[in-house]
Design goal:
Radius of gyration of chain A: 11 Å
Number of strands of chain B: 18
Strand content of chain A: under 5%
Number of helices of chain A: 4
Number of domains of chain B: 4
Largest sheet of chain B: 9 strands, mixed
Helix content of chain B: 40-55%
Oligomer: heterodimer
Number of helices of chain B: 25
Distance between the termini of chain B: 48 Å
CATH topology of the largest domain in chain B: Rossmann fold
Order of helices and strands of chain A: HHHH
Shape of chain B: globular
Structural class of chain B: alpha/beta
CATH class of the largest domain in chain B: Alpha Beta
CATH superfamily of the largest domain in chain B: SGNH hydrolase
Largest sheet of chain A: none
Strand content of chain B: 15-25%
Number of strands of chain A: 0
């Protein structure tokens, strides 16, 4: 999957979780840029992403992702 | 959750439901989705949509209030719990206690917990509690003492929660999340963390039984699914989630089926298809000798296992019915003639085999047994029949049987349709009651008139106050009865006992016997003295089992109530009738019994019977005062 495809899927997950179809994620998007993307929604988002891509992030990853681009890069790396 | 049907395109289904302008239609569509197999993200979406619906619906049923008190984060479980509520016919309102704060909240009468006035409280202690302060060198007695202390503390919390309230307490047991220390030797060492968790869980089950608390048996679920399906150490470290998000739907269903069982929402009847469900093959094509059933083939044993499971369910009070597209004589002959059949014809309380539509037949079965469609579980190997019933009779539970008959029993059993919170003599005898009921039906067919039939039954009522021996059955009847239920108030055993013990209240129980047998304890009436406008006796609640409908029993009970009221010096009997979704069958009860209406506020009507004017109703039931 390309970075753009992965971010598309991530966008869908976050829209579903927060209930806002206006959300647009870009590689540089951070959690604080998206209203409602609190720490609780973040864990749900991580769970949703793990399910969607069939991957498992390490606790270090989850703690240190700075933006959407880093999450997408990790998904690509884990998918090999 | 494999008993729930999958959804092909959840997003499209949700869109379609959302587009419906009509609230009841939208609700039906969304609730149907709540009955499907959903992942975490889908569950959160559906919960949000259902919450909007609850805000729209003016006449939504009163929500059931459930408080969750845990030593861990539970917020991620809430959407799944609410969705499970819809699946089980309940609107849940949830309260989450402060993280690890429940001991203080229970003690503090001014806490948010008490202000919430919960109907149900779940206590979910952390597994770390078990081993705290116990040395590895502890012997058997010390380990037991440590567990007793924890259970005593919980017991005090239960008592406190129930003090002065009808709160039902649900106690979660411990999930062993610890790592092996010695290895398999852990189990042999009383002071090892693993042994302490096992001991505490065993002790907890006993304490729950003794105190009438229901157990949320997480340990058993984890033993079945594997600990890793339930616990994700990463999530614990990240967010102190003791239940992994992936387990939320399963956890929620286990929890809510307990609540539903307390609210009389557990299913009552297992309806079985025959060909390729109860036996392998099609009897009309293959003949009795050609069926695969019983020893000698794995397929035959799988179908036999389903029969044996059904028989075991019947033994604990679940009704069995047959609903099959078949020639009735041929279908019945398999029960009589096939040597490997575990189920006999008289195990089946309602037997319907014909070529009619199964939806119509399920309605017929519900009618024959005098139970609601929402008491039925319909088991059929044919996906088309299942889809048809789900679409036309959404109240009926339809497990998504796997294609392999080897999985039938687990699929039905894991769905928890028949979750129980007690096991009474009535349950043990239920199948006998229904066998007698079908004989009565034959008798009725042979009688010239209803009057002659009733006279011929030689009925006797035995009644008295609800004592210690009747308390469990009386409570069960109060909470399971949906049709003949004047106010649908649900009460704990504690509360029923308060009616029995109080100086200004009465709890009466009624048994009906006839020449075909004892129908058991089939009616309970809770009464309260009322001093205003002269002295009256108020019927707070009256429930009667559908087993004895149509026998004039309610008239005889009223005669007894009138006599009781007179003896207490009352001039009137009064009663409320609160309509529910399911008690329409007695909407005219008080009018038929001669009461006068004295008010109706839409949500409830109030009735009065002046005893001076009342003459006993003639019935065919003789009296006998209970021991």
């Amino acid at each position: 999957m390309t970075e753009a495809q992965i971010i598309d899927v991530l966008t869908g997950i976050l829209r579903d979780l927060i209930g806002d179809d206006g959300i647009v994620l870009r590689p540089a998007t951070e959690r604080r840029d998206v209203p409602g993307w609190d720490s609780f929604a973040y864990i749900n988002f991580i769970v949703g992403a793990e399910m969607a891509f069939g991957v498992k992030f390490s606790v270090a990853d989850v703690e240190s992702f700075a933006n959407v681009g880093e999450i997408a890069a990790k998904v690509r790396a884990l998918q090999g | 959750m494999n008993w729930l049907p999958p959804v092909a395109d959840f997003r499209a289904e949700l869109q379609a439901a959302r587009a419906l302008a009509d609230t009841p239609l939208r609700q039906a569509r969304l609730v149907a989705l709540a009955g499907c197999r959903l992942n975490t993200v889908e569950t959160i979406q559906l919960d949000r949509e259902l919450a909007r619906l609850a805000a729209d619906a003016a006449a939504a049923p009163r929500p059931v209030k459930l408080a969750l008190l845990a030593d861990a984060t539970v917020d991620h479980l809430l959407p799944a719990i609410r969705v499970a509520g819809w699946r089980h016919g309940l609107t849940l309102q949830l309260h989450v206690g402060g993280f690890g704060q429940w001991r203080a909240e229970i003690l503090d009468p001014a806490s948010a917990l008490h202000a919430f006035e919960p109907d149900f409280v779940l206590l979910a202690p952390g597994a770390h509690a078990a081993a705290a302060g116990v040395a590895l060198t502890a012997d058997e007695a010390q380990a037991q003492q440590a567990c007793d202390a924890i259970v005593d503390e919980l017991g005090a919390a239960w008592a406190r929660l129930r003090q002065g309230r009808a709160t039902v307490v649900l106690q979660q047991n411990l999930l062993d999340t610890g790592a092996p220390l010695f290895g398999q030797f852990d189990a042999l060492l009383p002071g090892s963390p693993a042994a302490l968790v096992a001991r505490l869980n065993a002790r907890l089950a006993v304490a729950c039984r003794e105190a009438g608390v229901s157990l949320l048996d997480l340990a058993r679920a984890a033993a079945r699914d594997g600990r890793d399906a339930w616990f994700d150490r990463g999530r614990w470290l990240q967010a102190k989630m003791a239940i992994a998000p992936q387990a939320a739907t399963r956890y929620a269903d286990l929890l809510v089926r307990l609540v539903a069982a307390h609210r009389g929402r557990a299913r009552k009847c297992l309806v079985l298809d025959l060909d390729n469900t109860l036996w392998g093959g099609v009897v009309g094509d293959d003949g009795i000798a050609g069926l695969r059933l019983g020893q000698g083939s794995a397929v035959g044993e799988a179908h036999l296992a389903l029969q044996q499971y059904a028989k075991a369910l019947a033994g604990r009070g679940i009704l069995l019915a047959v609903c099959s597209k078949n020639d009735p004589a041929l279908a019945e002959s398999v029960f009589r003639e096939h040597p490997e059949m575990a189920l006999r014809r008289d195990d089946i309380a309602a037997f319907v085999a014909n070529w009619d539509d199964k939806a119509a037949n399920l309605q017929r079965i519900a009618g024959m047994l005098n139970i609601g469609l929402d008491s039925l579980v319909f088991v059929d190997d044919n996906p088309a029949e299942r889809a048809r019933i789900r679409a036309s009779l959404p109240a009926v539970a339809v497990p998504e049987l796997p294609p392999d008959p080897a999985g039938y029993v687990d699929c039905i059993a894991e769905a928890g349709y028949f979750e129980a919170v007690s096991f009474t003599d009535e349950d043990r005898a239920r199948s006998r009651y229904y066998a007698a009921a079908s004989q009565r039906a034959e008798l009725q067919g042979g009688a010239q008139s209803m009057d002659e039939f009733l006279r011929g039954l030689d009925m006797v009522v035995r009644h008295g106050p609800v004592g210690a021996l009747e308390l469990e059955r009386a409570t069960q009847l109060v909470n399971k009865t949906n049709q003949f239920n004047t106010t649908t108030r649900r009460l704990s055993a504690h509360e029923v006992r308060r009616y029995a013990d109080g100086p200004h209240t009465l709890a009466l129980q009624f048994r009906l016997l006839d020449r075909l047998g004892d129908n058991g304890l089939v009616s309970v009436v809770l009464l309260r003295d009322r001093a205003e406008d002269g002295v009256a006796l108020d019927i707070d609640l009256w429930v009667m089992s559908c087993r004895v409908f149509g026998r004039g029993f309610e008239h005889e009970i009223l005669n007894i109530l009138a006599e009781t009221a007179r003896r207490r010096g009352a001039a009137e009997l009064r009663a409320d009738f609160v309509p529910s979704e399911r008690n329409g069958v007695i909407a005219g009860l008080f009018e038929q019994l001669g009461f006068q209406p004295i008010g109706d506020n839409g949500a409830a009507s109030r009735w009065r019977l002046t005893l001076a004017d009342h003459r006993p109703h003639p019935t065919h039931i003789r009296h006998e005062t209970g021991p």
